[in-house]
Design brief:
Distance between the termini: 40 Å
Number of strands: 11
Shape: globular
Order of helices and strands: EEEEEEEEEHEE
Length: about 130
Amino acid sequence: QVQLEESGGGLVQAGGSLRLSCAASGRTFGTYAWFRQAPGKEREFVASITRSGSTKYYADAVKGRFTISRDNAKNTVYLQMNSLKPVDTAVYHCAAQNQVCFGFRCSATRAEYEYWGQGTQVTVSS
């Protein structure tokens, strides 16, 4: 049974850091990603990484502040979030798809991802 389980969310002050983890069980995938959904807004792309780690993409809003990485031995994907802002407040979801995406469109499109975690809440106070 395929499962994606996120952890690491919480409450942090603006300027602080958090590291999210996404543990995948059941199998490995071609591409992994983080999306986020703020109250009243659509779920949006944050970052993605291929299974080998060779290709990564970031949303413009998080470039230079967030870093996605992967530990193949643990089948876990991480999202290091630094210099957090109140606008980063959202539920962060881990996602995975079978395809190895080398292009941005494939990597950042929500509909391309077949598997989703339940999400972890990140709240950034001002």
